[in-house]
Design goal:
The protein is mostly beta strands. The chain contains two helices and 29 strands. The strands form eight sheets. Strands 11-12-13-14-29-23-22-17-20 form a nine-stranded antiparallel beta sheet, with no helix packed on it. The protein has a five-stranded antiparallel beta sheet with strand order 1-2-3-4-5, with no helix packed on it. Strands 19-18-21-24-27 form a five-stranded antiparallel beta sheet. β4 (about 40-45) and β5 (about 55) form a beta hairpin.
Length: about 350
């Protein structure tokens, strides 16, 4: 391991498999702790105005915390991030039935998605810098999905205080793929309370409307004159209790925003600023959508990192770069089909600054 990556034991899974923590650092004293279990970002310590570092992601102190919890803190989500209606889809006239882990629908890859497996970890060093590459082979039929899918996810921490996440996948038969990272961010610190005073901007004019089960209806609607509109900076808590269907269905914000990114370029999707800490975070992506989620289902007094820490509802927010929910069943949404002759690639950058 290089001086910028340290490896240590983190514990064992319930079936006795060892789990390791890889700690990436840059020249500014910023660090990212990443597990080979679920590719989980367990910590992200960002330097602030006074030189001290703030851990801005929610997480647990043990492997069992991640095994026994369905909040998806910090993990790689796959094969398919977000929801698939009725846990089934058609591909090449064949119907594939998936796990109904949020009945009657399928969520975030199923009962044992990519967040619950051990990934092979390898340090990499190239012209882009030093990083950690995680690899996993998802076998044909796993959680109901077709094809053997070879996945690689690379984490890099740059000296510009950016966390780069690059996704790559290949298959031996037609399948569907939609990968993301599910970190919960709190720029005041993971143990500092709620994120309702964080000021958010999302660079989108439309969203995918859903029904009461948070399944897309197929309609892409304008954000204008809705409490979902963050084209101008607005504190997260200002309109979260408005009487609006999408907020009622999600118990708060849990919406996919449609980005103007048809060409798959790396564009700025969103920016969050915390007036308390002075930290800001930009989310850039090559994906066509970003799911904004305000931790609406974190149970009261959920034990968190640091011994005495407990998390509450809305202790963190997620900006999950992705394809749209239920895309396999919505033919007019951007395609999520991966064929053997093609490869799946996308990139997300979380960029931190002091304002």
């Amino acid at each position: 391991m290089s001086e910028h990556i340290k490896k240590e034991r983190f514990g064992k899974t319930s079936d006795g498999k060892p789990v390791h923590l890889y700690r990436l650092t840059n020249t500014n004293n910023m660090s990212a702790g990443i597990l080979d279990y679920g590719g989980i970002v367990v910590s992200l310590k960002v330097p602030g105005n006074n030189g001290s570092c703030t851990d801005v992601v929610l997480g647990f102190d043990s492997v069992q915390g991640y095994e026994n919890n369905n909040l998806y803190f910090g993990c790689i989500v796959g094969r398919f991030a977000n929801r698939i209606a009725n846990a089934r889809f058609l591909l090449n006239d064949n119907e594939y039935k998936l796990a109904q882990n949020i009945k009657p629908n399928h969520l975030h890859g199923g009962t044992r998605g990519f967040d619950k497996v051990i990934w092979a970890a390898k340090e990499i060093s190239d012209t882009q810098g030093t990083g950690l590459r995680l690899s996993y082979l998802s076998l044909d039929g796993e959680e109901g999905y077709p094809g053997n899918l070879a996945v690689k996810v690379t984490y890099r921490l740059t000296d510009a205080n950016e966390l780069h996440i690059e996704y790559f996948a290949e298959t031996d038969q037609d399948t569907v793929v939609n990968l993301t990272n599910h970190s919960y961010f709190n720029l005041s610190g993971h143990d500092s309370g709620d994120i309702l005073n964080h000021v958010l901007t999302i660079h989108a004019e439309e969203f995918t409307a859903t029904d009461a089960r948070s399944i897309p209806t197929g309609e892409i609607k304008s954000l204008a004159n809705t409490p979902l509109d963050f084209r101008d900076p607005v504190p997260v808590g200002d309109r979260i209790h408005d009487q609006y269907d999408a907020l009622k269905y999600g118990n708060g914000y849990d919406t996919n925003y449609v980005l103007n990114n048809a060409q798959g370029m790396l564009i700025k999707a969103a920016e969050v600023f915390d007036p308390k800490s002075g930290l800001s975070m930009e989310a850039l992506t090559t994906q066509p959508g970003v799911q904004f989620y305000t931790g609406n289902y974190i149970e009261c007094n959920t034990p968190g990192k640091g011994g005495q820490t407990t998390y509450q509802k809305r202790s963190g927010l997620c900006l999950e770069t992705q394809h749209y929910p239920d895309s396999p069943n919505q033919p007019h949404f951007p395609s999520v089909v991966l064929k053997p002759e093609d490869s799946y690639r996308h990139k997300t950058v979380y960029r931190f600054k002091i304002k």
